[in-house]
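Sorry, explain these tokens?

___
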Amino acid sequence: MAGRLQRAIEADVQSGLYDGAATIVAVGGEIAFNETTGYADRPNETPLRHDSVFPVFSISKALTAVALLQRVERGEARLDTPVCEVIPEFGVKGKARATLGQLLCHTAGVAPGFPAVPADKQGDLEAVVAAVCDTPAVSVPGEEASYSQIMAHAVAAECVRRLDGNGLRFRDIVTRDICAPLGMTDTCLGMRADLASRGVVPRCTDRSPGLFDPDALVAAAQDIMDPALDHEMPAAGFVSTLNDIYAFADALRCGGRRDDARVLSSAMVSFAIRVHTGTMVNTQWHFAREMKGWPAFPANLGLGFFIRGEGMIPTYFGHLSSPETFGAFGAGSTNMWVDPTRDMTMVCLTTGILEETNSAARFQRLSDIAIAEFYG
């Protein structure tokens, strides 16, 4: 008999809220729930599979953050190193004091939205970084949490490239330093040709007005999923599978290590999953305060991760999760969290893109169901 979480997902899919979901819940490293439900492509009735490949959108930021944190651990830079010491051309138009750590917790003053490059250059890392360098700061570095959907993590990725110094593409550095050690063989920045046949088909199932234009999100996902375009968008452009994202989350649960592979020290993981934004609010959610009546609440941003924090505030990780719970989520479709207190992990990747506040409410509900059912 299906449990509460399975019934909830099946009801969502049947109602058309989203097309399908691939979900893992684990407690103490033991998998308690591992199911796929619904469609990879509903119009063509293609079923979702455990090895379906998803655009994970902003879960990408966590992967990019880990790549930069690795460089800090190796002594190649500090978290308080000014970005312009690594990328000299960045230090203009009010950005000279912005640091590497501020890039990762969205307090560097880097603008939200898409960079000022043509549509066909949004996945060109060199072009995007050049555009960001020429863009004025939107706030004084360190004084405001201004969530940067694309640009801050493009700069973070370029910092990794320059610190690496071998002329490699960022996608290849992440494969070498994170994906290969953790056995994430189905994860790549931009779609690989050998994964394309397993790719889900991006579709919008919720056209409510909100932060993002639904057609633009679908178009971005289609570009990410097209191997011919060779896209490299470190903030939102990784593709992956349920098992691979779970492997990444499980390594973080274990302090940066999984089996015999270590990608970060436990000390760095512990530091990265602290709140580094104090009482600042996340300016990304200003629209939701008016549109959905959301309260003002702290941004609760770590270094590449969101932190649950306290109170009955909107949270993708569920109200029942511990305040220390950390994770990442992707535009209208994906969610990953680790609760260190309960030693519990959840990954849910969905097809069918929702308006962002509706996606937050959906994942909050599913996370609470999972915690109540499997932690008990």
The chain has two domains: 4-58+186-375, 67-170. The chain has a mean pLDDT of 96.
